Each structure stands twice: as C-alpha cells, then as structure tokens.
Amino acid sequence: MKALVLSGGKGTRLRPITNSFAKQLIPVANKPILFYVLEDIAAAGIKDVGIVVGETKNLIKEAVGSGKRWGINVTYIEQDAPLGLAHAVKIAEPFIGDEPFIMYLGDNLLKGGIKSFVDEYGNKREDIVILLTEVDHPEQFGVAVLDDRGKIKGLVEKPARFISNKALVGIYIFNQKIFPAVNSIKPSWRGELEITDAIQQVIDQGGRVEPFVIKGWWKDTGKKEDVLEANRLILEDLQPLNRGEVDSRSRVSGRVNIGRGTHIKNSVIEGPVIIDNNCLIEDSYLGPYTSIGEGVQIINSEVEQSIVMEKTIIIDITVRIANSLVGRDTRIKSRQGRPGIHELLLGDQSSLELYE
Asked: pTM of the entire structure?
C-alpha cells in the first residue's frame, strides 16, 4: 500500500499566518501538523508516500525533504491549482500505479493514528474505506448516509438540510476503482472535482464502499479555533520533562516540557505547557494549553491557551494574551491603556503595540 498526502491548499481561513507559511506546517505542540500525518503513515508500515503540493511547495519540500527521518520515501506531486480532492487523486495515478493507497489530508489530526484502519483493509473485500466521525454541524462537512445495517447508502457534500451527522474524516483507502471515477466526474458548483462525487460513482456502479467510524478525536485544522483545539488535545498527553534551567524564584506545576537552553526566571508556569529550546521566560506567567516555539522571549507578560511560534518576542504585556495564534518572528510590546483580554491572529514578522 502507498500513501497520498494532500498539502496543496492555500489555507485562506488562516490568513495572515498562511500569507507566508504553509498551513500544514503550522506547529501544534511545537510540531508541524504535517509531521503528525507522516508519523501516522510510517507507523502503519507504509513506505512510499506521495505529497501533493501547490503554491507552498518549496516550504513543504524544505521541511519534509526525502522523508528519511520517518523511514519513508517521499515523491512530490505538483498540482497547478487546488481543484479538489478528486483532482489530487487524478494527477497522482502515475505515482500510485496498481497498488491500493490511503489518502490523508495534510492538515488533519487523528488520535491513535491509522494503523488499525490500514490493517483492516481488505478483510471485507472492499474497494473503498472511508473514515467517519459524528459531528455537531454536518452542514460544514461531506457526510455519509448509512442504512439500517450501517452500510453506506450515499454521500453528500455539505448538505443544506440534515440527512446525517456522520462526517467524512479527511482519510480514505482506495483501490484502482477510484481512478475511472475521478476521470469521469464533472466539477461541482465550487469548480472542484469532489471526492464525494467520485466515491458516489463507485457506489452507483456496484463498488463496495465500507465505513470505519473512529472512536477517538479528529481535528481538521482549517481555522484558528481548530488549531488551538488540536493543540489543547495533544497537550493533554504531554509528558513532563525539564532540559532547561528553572530558577528558585519560579514555580512550575502540572505537565510542563522545557527544552534545552531555555531559561525560566521569576515566572509561573502552569501546565500543560510545552516550551521549545533556547527560550527566555522572565517575570511572566504561562497558563495551560500553551505552546512556545524555539527562541521565543516572553518578558513581564501573561500568555495562556495559545501557540506562539519561533523567534517571537513578547514584552510587558500584563493584560493576558489568550486563545491566540502568533506567527514567527513577531514583536509584541505594550503601552498604557485599558485592561482586557487580547485575542490575536498574527502573521509572520508582525509588529503590534497593545495599549493598556
């Protein structure tokens, strides 16, 4: 079995972060989202991985390289424009060849990985297996309609009225029957080749499509709130470790992971919190569910439930920063003003002055 990872999307809902950054490389618990995907694939025993890339191809290639660090072999497949999931499958046919393959969206996170999903493929002589999960707002997703036996009757992309709460997770296994389908369907009203239309065609032509309902959490990290929620979920399993220096005036409690070369001075850290290498936290408070990237400096400030990316400097922000996603190499400092809580979505190399 091979793997196809989709990493060509523009990430418009995460701008301005994605103006200069691939959304699949946004760090969650200080690790790019795409790296979790590749770890899952490697853990499932899959060696040959095709990564579909678009405008951010150079960033993806620089970060992932040959795939050697995960013990996989990576082939890059260039997509001229984001024309839909089925289009990505279509252009990947030369890479896939005659093997079954798992398709995994590069901005998705799944608790527990995909090994059990992959290991079960073929037991029911299925052509396609799709991962499903129950959601509160099915109108935002492609959904599967199941019959009384739990078999798939049909698929609908973002239904206007309620027909099912079983949403398609961005992970599928296909065999060769998917290729005639993606090559024959027409673009939807969105101008894209929809994978739901291709799968529906396989169903209509008598193909066997089986559901696999996941039990753990799944996150599509397309929005700031989703990224922060994924960060929270992963930090729930954080293992405490201190490889830095914490002075006697500081208090560290809960699950806190501190990287090498990091100094904590006269500060309070309440986990779960992860702090990367070569950071300085001084006269500050870091609250639960916070991830601090490499080389960050936080001085006389308060941050919680946020992701602060590498080389950012936050100084004299005594009004707490919360529920925020802060890009790389950002500078934030304070001036006098009114108290409150700041919620931020800042792009790389931003400069922000907050009035207290």
From this structure: 0.87
